[in-house]
Amino acid sequence: NIYQALSSCRSLLLNFGGHATAAGFSIEAGRIEEFRNRINDYAWQANNGEWVSPPLELDSLIDLEQVSEELINELNLLKPFGHLNPVPLFGCRQATIINYRSVGRDAAHLKLLLKCRDKTLEGIGFNLGAYADLLADFDKVDLAFIPDMNVYNGKTSIQIRIKELGTPAVFDTRDIKLQSSLSAGYRHLPT
C-alpha cells in the first residue's frame, strides 16, 4: 500500500497524497537519503523481513519468430495500457544469445541480440544491466518480454523490451508464470 508507506514517512515529506496503488509527494532534497532508508525499512517490515518479488504473469509463451510488426500493431489496438489494462507480457523459451552488452549510464541496461530458429531480434532490458556478467556462462535464455517498435536515428525496427530473463529454463508452463530471478537468483522449477 503506497499511501500507507508514505504515511509512515510523513515527518520527512512536505506533502503527499494518493491511494493504495498510486501516490505522489514533495520532499526537500536534503531529506531524500533519510526518506530512502525509512521507506525501505517500511517495505522490509511490511514484507516480514523478506524482499518479495511476485511472479510475472505471462499472457502467452511464443517463439521469437512470431514477433512481427503485425503482432505489434494488433497489440496496439488494446491501448491504452495501465493498471487495469496491463500491456501483454509474453514468454519465450530457449532463445539463443548471439551477442549481449551493458549499455546506458553506469551500464544499467542490457542489450541483446537473440535468435530463435530463423528469426533474429534485438532486445533491450532496462535496469537489467547486472545480468551481463551472469550471461557469460550461458548460450540460451528464457525471456519475459513485450514486443515493441524501436525508432532510432530515423530507422524503425522490431525490438523486444525484456522485463525478466533467466538461465536455464525458469518457466513453469503449467500455469504460465515466470518466477522472478532478479531478487533471489535463478530458480529451477519442476516440470
Largest sheet: 5 strands, mixed, barrel
What is the N-to-C order of secondary-structure elements (H for helix, E for strand)? HEEHEEHEEEHEEEE
Overall body shape: globular
As residue ranges, the low-confidence spans are 175-191
Count of strand segments: 11
> How far is the N terminus from the C terminus?
34 Å
Strand ordering within the main sheet: 5-6-7-9-8
SS content category: alpha+beta
Bin the strand percentage. Answer: 35-45%
Write a compact overview of the structure shown.
By secondary structure, the chain is of the alpha+beta class. Helices cover 18% and strands 39% of the residues.
Structure description:
Helix content is 18%, strand content 39%. The protein is of the alpha+beta class and 191 residues long. The chain has a five-stranded mixed β-barrel with strand order 5-6-7-9-8. The chain has a three-stranded antiparallel sheet with strand order 3-11-10, with no helix packed on it. Strands 1-2 form a two-stranded antiparallel ribbon. The longest helix has 15 residues, at 32-46. The protein is globular, with a radius of gyration of 19 Å. Residues 175-191 have low confidence and may be disordered.
Descriptive labels:
five-stranded mixed barrel, globular, 191 residues, alpha+beta
